[in-house]
Automatic annotation (TrEMBL):
GO terms for cellular component: DNA-directed RNA polymerase complex. Promotes RNA polymerase assembly. Latches the N- and C-terminal regions of the beta' subunit thereby facilitating its interaction with the beta and alpha subunits. The RNAP catalytic core consists of 2 alpha, 1 beta, 1 beta' and 1 omega subunit. When a sigma factor is associated with the core the holoenzyme is formed, which can initiate transcription. SMART domains: RNA_pol_Rpb6. It catalyses: RNA(n) + a ribonucleoside 5'-triphosphate = RNA(n+1) + diphosphate. PANTHER family: DNA-DIRECTED RNA POLYMERASE SUBUNIT OMEGA. The gene is rpoZ. The lineage of its organism: Bacteria, Bacillati, Bacillota, Bacilli, Bacillales. It is an enzyme of class 2 (transferase). This is DNA-directed RNA polymerase subunit omega. Its EC number is 2.7.7.6. One of its GO terms (molecular function) is DNA-directed RNA polymerase activity.
Amino acid sequence: MLYPSIDSLLKKINSKYTLVSVAAKRAREMQQNNDQQIEKTKSVKFVGKALEEIDANLLYYEKSDAK
């Protein structure tokens, strides 16, 4: 079973596309800066760590009204 589950993640960010975009951007940021917000993660890879941050409400997405 995958952790965190897609169901719990979609409660935080309601679009799969947005979820993937936010996690990928945060994963790149973590890889460059080595600044994860969770001490002990279950995931080894950066994308998994980013998803864990989203699930722990440490990372979120706000929709902008940019045109």
